[in-house]
Amino acid sequence: MNRMSPQLTVLLVIFSLHCYMSDMAMASDPDPLQDFCIPNTKWGYGRAARLDTIPCKNSSEATTDDFVFSGLKKPAETFSDMGIAAVSVTPQMFPGLNTLGMSFVRADIQVGGINAPHFHPRATEITYVLQGKVYSGFVDSTNRVFAAVIEQGEVMVFPRGLVHFQMNVGESPATVFGCFNSQNPGAQKIPSAIFGSEIKDELLEKAFGMTPKQIDKMRRKFVPKG
Ligand SMILES: *[C@@H]1O[C@H](CO)[C@@H](O)[C@H](O)[C@H]1NC(C)=O
């Protein structure tokens, strides 16, 4: 066998780099074709079947206010029974974000409170601790857990689509800021996706080795409220 010529090696490297880079481009929100796209509220989000078909306002009608959001100064008003209050900021609330491929969340967690295991099907998340001590982690697709207690000023990244969780292990309220590389990351909470959905009881009994009574108890706890 001949050794591969240096020219061929260089070509192969360039080719694989090219594939790698085009993969990266395909894996994110589409690149905008204009500076920004403030949704035209005359059309609204309600009537558009797809987020990417919402018409933009004429850019001459955009204002600075479209690019400033003041709704994260305080925690959300109501804490869940898990001790967390979250405000997810989407382009519906913050028009300037639209089409930029990102969004964010503020979450306040009471002492001992948790952000139950969940995942975002369309985004990687960076979580930044503004105050407090937070046990944070994720589980990879081999069920390995990567978790640590992170404190004020520290950051952790949760790769896209992987189950992750947080718990306030400090002695004071914690505040975290999460940033997503999608304007519509989506969120599926594991407990409610399983027990708050309409999967047949029989299947859940077999999957979890639980009795009908235990399933019923979990259903009552996780069925969506309101
Ligand atoms: C946007 O607004 C400007 C200024 O009013 C106007 O000249 C332009 O024709 C508008 N563009 C479109 C596509 O309507």
TrEMBL record:
Q: Could you confirm whether the keyword Manganese appears in this record?
A: yes
- Major place of localization? secreted
* Positions of disulphide bridges: C37-C56
Q: Where is the signal peptide?
A: 1-27
**Residue ranges annotated for the Cupin type-1 domain, each copy included:** 70-216
Gene Ontology MF annotations: manganese ion binding
Could you name the Gene Ontology cellular component terms for this entry? apoplast; plasmodesma
Q: Where in the cell is it found?
A: Secreted, Extracellular space, Apoplast
A biological process term (GO) from this entry: plasmodesmata-mediated intercellular transport
Indicate which residues the UniProt annotation says bind oxalate.
Answer: N115, H120, E125
| Annotated binding of Mn(2+), by residue | H118, H120, E125, H164
For this UniProt record, the keywords arranged alphabetically read as follows: Apoplast, Disulfide bond, Glycoprotein, Manganese, Metal-binding, Secreted, Signal
Q: Which InterPro entries does this chain map to?
A: Cupin_1, Germin, Germin_Mn-BS, RmlC-like_jellyroll, RmlC_Cupin_sf
Family in the record: Belongs to the germin family.
Q: What is this protein called?
A: Germin-like protein
